[in-house]
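U., I forgot to send this yesterday:
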Amino acid sequence: MSSLRARMEAELQSLPPGPITVAFSGGLDSSVLLHCLAASDEVRQRGLRAIHVNHQLHADSEAWAAHCAKICHSSDVPFETLLVRVDRDRGSGLEASARDARHAAIQFAMRCEEIIAFAHHRDDQAETVLLRLLRGAGPEGMAAMRSLRRFGPGLAWRPLLAIPRNELVAHAKEFQLEWLEDPSNRDTRIDRNFLRARAIPLLRERWPNLQSTFSQGAQWMRAAADFIEQQSDIALADLRGTDPASLNANGWLALADALRDSVLRSWLRSLGLPPPNRHQVGELERQLREARADRLPCVRWPGVELRRYRQWIHAMAPMPRIPTDWQQAWNGHVLVLPADLGTLALVDERGEAITLPDADRLQVRFRRGGERIQLRGEPIHHELRDLLQKAGVPPWSRDRMPLVFHADGRLLAVADRWIGFFGTRLLSIHNARLVWKTR
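Result:
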C-alpha cells in the first residue's frame, strides 16, 4: 500500500458514516484522489461514485467529460456528468461564478448524508490563505478550507489538505495514472494562477517552506475562527429580539470588535440574507453611533436593508414600492395587494372568503396622512399616526398596512390590527372577520 493510500485509510477512520462521491475534474489531483478511494475496501462498502461538472466553458469540455467517464468505467466506479451554465456577467469574476455554479449543481445532485470528496491539497490551501489575505479577509477567511464541513444535504471532505502536491505527482507517476491538463490553469490573468505561477515561486526562493507555513497558519486561524463562532452564537442568542429579524442595537455596538462582524453575519445568514463586506459593517456601526435617537439610520447592499428603530436593528429584503395613489374598490373577497404585501379578505367562521352586497362595497388604499379612526367603545377619533407610533410599528411599515374605508370615507380598519367602531358593526352584521395575510 502506498504511503498516500495509508494516510487516506487513516483519514477514513474519523469520517462519519455515509457514501462517498468524488468531485472528479479529470485533473491530476482528483485523479489521484479517485484512485486512492477506489482502492479502499471500506470506501467500496460505503458506496463510491464520481461526479464530473461540465462548465461548458472550453471547446474540449465534452472530451474531458468522456475521459472522466472512461476512467471511472475502468475503475468500476459509477459516474455522472452534470451540465452547468456559468453566469459570465455576475460581476464576481469567471472563476468565482464557475465555482458557485459547480457547487450548486453538486449539492442538487447529492443524496442525504452523502460525503463529497474534493481534491484540494496543501498547496491549494496556501494559495487560498494568500488570496484571502490580499482581499482583506478576517479570521474565518484566513482559516481557509476546512477538511470537513456541512455541504448541501451532506458533507464536504478534503482528505488531501495536509499533503503537498509533489506527493500527488509522485503517486500519479508511480501508478501511471492518466489525467488532463486544463490550459486555463496557465492563464495568469486569473488571480490563483498568477499566485501559483509567479508570486509563490518567487516567495519560495526566500521562504522554502512557504506552503507548510501557510497551512500551519491556517490551522491556527481555524481554531481562532471556531472560537469566535462559538462566542458569536452565544452573543446572538442574547441580542436577538422576539422577532428573529431584529437585533438589539446597543448590545451589538457593545460587543468586542472581534465579535461584532461575526454576530452580524451569523444573524443575516440565519435569515437567508446576503452578508455585508467590511465597509458596510463599518458604515452600520458609524450610523448607529452617530445618529440621534429620533433618526432612522439605514444601510443597504444588494439583497438586504438594515434599519434601526428605537433600540432595534431590523433586517429585511428590499421592499417593493407601492404604486402612487393605489386604491381598489372591494367587496370583501380575496384582494391581492400590490408590492408583495399579501392578501386582504373577509372570511366567515369556517375561514372561507365571503362577498359583500353592493350596498356595502368598500375601498382599500394605503396611508396618505391625516387618517383618523374611532375605535370600538371610545367616543373620540384617534389620529392613525399616533396609534402607529404608540404601538411601535416601524416607520417603514406604517405606509404598507392596507386601510379599509366605507364608501362615505370613514376609516373602518387598519389591516386586521385595529378594527374601528363602524368596522366592528359591519363585520358583526355579516358574521365575518378581516384577515390580512402577508407572504
